[in-house]
Amino acid sequence: YTPLSYLLGPVSCKKVVDFYYEKNLENDERVIPEKLWYKATNPYAFRHYIHKNDPRFEFETGRDTIEEFTKKMSRHKIVMDISGIGGNSIRFAQGMGLGLAVLRPKVKVLADNPVIPNYHFIEVDCDDYSNSEDYSKYKILADAYIDKFEEVKKDEEFINYISKNAREYFDKNCRFSSFFDLVHKKVDLNKLR
What pLDDT was estimated at residue 1? Predict the structure, then answer.
């Protein structure tokens, strides 16, 4: 549990996310990809498994700037998020901020205003084995991602519904101003004197 909210990361990331979100509103050229796209600098655990063993995913490696990565991510209507070691990854808030339908297992890290599966993001029907030490679980999780992707990728109405709700959640909960408003509301600053 985080008593606050999911954060996007560096302040510069918010500006880039807003830029590409607005750009997509003006001229939406996003596509539903043929394969689920994911990018990682140094793939580990489940990321390593799909990178090396599963051609059903479009997996890219290497380091990008925040702007380069966000631009690549914003080309898709559906993106996948893989939990980081601490639970949620930056891609989760980034995808919501871009107004994308984020596909991921159940969110384990709850926030003050929790995300709702199949309202704010598309929930994969599988336990989150992304950081499991049991390598055999990775195929189960990969299959669950692909099954859910195949189920929803032709339903643009549902994808647009999730995308709209995701962006609204981002605007209300994931911006630094929202974060600090929540801190101010939850923390009695008089006790710090």
Answer: 47
Q: Tell me: the pLDDT tens digits for 51-92?
A: 999 999 999 999 999 899 999 999 999 999 998 766 667 788
CA distance 121 to 96: 8
Residue that has been written with the tokens 């993106």 in this structure: 79
Lookup: tokens for 71: 């631009």
HEC profile for the chain? CCCCCCCCCCHHHHHHHHHHHHHHHHCCCCECCCCEEEEECCCCHHHHHHHHHCCCEEEEECCCCHHHHHHHHCCECEEECCCECCECCHHHHHHHHCCCEEEECCCCCCCCCCCCECCCEEECCCCCCCCCCCCCHHHHHHHHHHHHHHHHCCCHHHHHHHHHHHHHHHHHHHCHHHHHHHHHHHCCHHHHC
Q: Tell me what percent of the residues of the chain surpass a pLDDT of 70.
A: 91
Q: What is the rounded CA–CA span in Å between residue 122 and residue 102?
A: 6
What is this structure's pTM? 0.88
